[in-house]
Amino acid sequence: MTSQISFQFNPSFYKKTNPAIIKKCVAKTIKDTTLEAEKRCKEKAPYDTGNLRRSHSSKYSADEGTVHNSANYAVYVITGTYKMPARNYPSEVCKELGSEKYMANRFRKHLRDEGVTK
């Protein structure tokens, strides 16, 4: 099960700005969002034993970020079984980040830090 967050730029945006700075800001935004998603997944993961929470890790590059869980039973917790209802906490985290406009706010912050906006 995969949940995704994405955003796009209008082509005119690139004409108005330095593409190298934009790439740098996008990479920082992806890193920040991926790490925040990992943190929130660790907080929202059910069970108090800690193994499911500790099993989260993330990978990110300039173009993409992913959060993984290496616990062999994570897929059953997330998607459910015939005996246990689904607890899709990664999807909840994605919805939260989307409703908070987390990526857009981080991107604006990085643009301000680079002096592109005020």
Q: What attributes does this structure have?
A:
118 residues, 6 helices
Describe this structure in words.
- Helix 2 (19-44) packs across helix 5 and helix 2 (19-44) packs across helix 6.
- A hairpin with a 4-residue loop joins strand 1 and strand 2 (65-69).
- The chain has a two-stranded antiparallel sheet.
- By secondary structure, it is mainly α.
- Helices cover 55% and strands 8% of the residues.
- The radius of gyration is 17 Å and the shape is elongated.
- The chain starts with 10 loop residues before the first helix and ends in a 5-residue tail after the last helix.
- It has six helices and two strands; from the N terminus they run H-H-H-E-E-H-H-H.
- The protein has helices spanning 11-16, 19-44, 51-54, 74-79, 89-99, 102-113; strands at 56-60, 65-69.
